[in-house]
Design brief:
This protein has helices at residues 3-13, 49-62, 134-143, 164-174, 181-185, 192-203, 212-225, 236-240, 248-263, and strands spanning 16-25, 34-44, 85-86, 89-90, 112-116, 125-127, 130-131. By secondary structure, the protein is α+β, with helices and mostly antiparallel strands. It folds into two domains: 3-127, Beta-grasp domain (Ubiquitin-like (UB roll), Roll), CATH 3.10.20; 134-146 and 161-263, Alpha-helical ferredoxin (Fumarate Reductase Iron-sulfur Protein, Chain B, domain 2). The mean pLDDT is 92.
């Protein structure tokens, strides 16, 4: 069958939908902001959520209006920048996916979709749907690193045997992409799941032992300085996390922090 015929056939069976979007618009951090209504039509069920926003912005630009500002980069669920609060859920109604991996088939034709930025005093809105997440970067800089020999005699990482259970746990923690869904979802705006993943990631590996105690104390202290709330074990962060980071890592962080606090006295 010719390609053009296959394309034509595919277009006939692909479901299209019309949606009403309620999008948060805010000029800058000092602006009060508010929801504005935009209709979009002919959206393919196979389109990603960000592709739908691309269609909206093209429509706005053609109408001589300011496009909606939103963060995105890899569009592969890796970078964590495409963070949106959709219909009251971080990254939308699907599970273990980022906003860029969310497909429009999760919505119904004629549905009204609410699109907002993360809500946290520690992550203020910069413009429209973009928030300032540099607090995460400062937490990472406080201790999310390891010391290595760069003199030319660097030891090969594969020369250090690591038990598979430990390696698996380290990899599970390392899947955190720092999107901030845990903060946006938590009723306390807690960043404990993020910090726990970063601390635990290194605590399981021999390369992370040099700064182990300093890392736990410094990263938790920086988290507190940034104004994030306390964890009350609600568990919403794990549910909404696109990588499924487990609450067990928060227990690991508490253990690391307690041990480091006792050792430092």
């Amino acid at each position: 069958m010719p390609i053009w015929l296959l394309t034509f056939h595919y277009s006939l069976i692909t479901k299209k939908m019309d949606l009403t979007l309620k999008v948060w618009r805010q000029k800058d951090a000092n602006d009060k902001g508010g929801l504005e209504t935009y209709p979009v039509t002919g959206i393919s069920e196979h389109a990603s959520f960000l592709e739908m926003l691309d269609v909206l912005n093209e429509q706005l630009i053609n109408d001589g209006k300011e496009p909606v500002a939103f963060d995105h980069d890899c569009r592969e669920g890796i970078c964590g920048t495409c963070s949106l609060y959709i219909n009251g859920e971080a990254h939308g109604p699907d599970r273990k996916v980022t906003t860029c991996q969310l497909h429009m088939r999760m919505f119904k034709d004629g549905e009204t979709v609410y699109i907002e930025p993360w809500r946290s005093a520690s992550m203020p809105v910069i413009r429209d749907l973009i928030v300032d997440r540099t607090a995460f970067e400062r937490i990472q800089q406080a201790g999310g690193f390891i010391s290595v020999n760069t003199s030319g005699n660097t030891q090969d990482a594969n020369a250090l045997p690591i038990a598979k259970p430990m390696a698996d746990k380290a990899m599970d923690a390392a899947t955190c992409i720092g999107c901030g869904a845990c903060v946006a979802t938590c009723k306390n705006s807690s960043a404990m799941l993020f910090v726990a993943a970063k601390v635990a990631q290194y605590s399981y590996l021999p390369q992370g032992q040099i700064e182990r105690q300093e890392r736990a104390i410094n990263m938790v202290d920086q988290m507190d300085k940034e104004g994030f709330g306390n964890c009350t074990n609600t568990g919403a962060c794990e549910v909404e996390c696109p990588k499924g980071i487990s609450l067990e890592f928060i227990a690991r962080l508490n253990k690391e922090y307690l041990g480091a606090s006792v050792a430092s006295k």
